[in-house]
């Protein structure tokens, strides 16, 4: 049996033996008793403090990942990084621009691509990011080939393929690459107001993620009002959902800029539309409705620097009937913001409870997002960090710098 399959106490004993140390020698170098070492190795006493794990690893002359048995996790990280590079390669083809048409035998049917995109969005909304990373490159290439063969029939599918790709890349901290995907989506969607508005939702996400809040406010407002003008009846739920979501994106960008008046005005407009749409819908993968706007108000308060207001609004958000109807990804992502608000409000216990709830709701939201790992690292630095958070940090090999 390889050492990476052993419990941590057995790994301590394994590496102690490899270093030809007795329990007493290891104990002396750690400033512990021999009984302490013996109990750790037998699993009677747990190693659940990041600082202690770091000390043991240093004495044994191995890195913390090896002591934690995280060699396999590192391989998984490498696989994910490879997946992002494969997505980059798929986005870096210019066959359409150069007029190189795909052979019919190389292009999947529009129906097949549409089904695959539906599955990709479902996977995203359930926060199953590793699976999505694995399948997206083939989906993007297939959608591009389908479009080159029949631009009319393949247009919507390609825009949606780029949208879900951009949404995932923002989650993974790959904002600039996400910008490439959403720029492709906006270009393909040109002259179709509904498609442009749908692609603009991810444009707003990318602009905010890459620090371009000013551009996001302007672009989101323009796209929102354009889709309303295109809706002659003024009551199509899909159009209202897109308009409302774009106004939310604009509000969050305005909050980041510190423009409280614009933030409040935009959220009030979105709330009016949310009331007309209602909760429990997912037009254009927006999950827009009154509860989505309530979530946005809490996040906007945090973006504006008012952690106390964000924490207070959180209590109202999770009590709403519509809370459970939001997609898993939406709820888990918001919980990370709520945890951050409570941490900034010097309530590490409540912040930890919310972060653990996010991890239970959607593990990949915590374990695969760089921003979530940064939040976890901030939490364990707090002198009152609760033990469950330290244990989660240990599991994910997140430690004090």
TrEMBL record:
Per its UniProt record, what SUPFAM superfamilies does this chain match? lambda repressor-like DNA-binding domains
Q: Cross-referenced InterPro entries, in alphabetical order?
A: Cro/C1-type_HTH, Lambda_DNA-bd_dom_sf, TPR-like_helical_dom_sf
Q: Which GO terms describe its molecular function?
A: DNA binding
Sorted alphabetically, which Gene3D superfamilies does this protein's record hold?
lambda repressor-like DNA-binding domains, Tetratricopeptide repeat domain
Q: What Pfam families does UniProt report for this protein, alphabetically?
A: HTH_31
Domain (HTH cro/C1-type) spans 12-67
Its name, as the record gives it, is XRE family transcriptional regulator
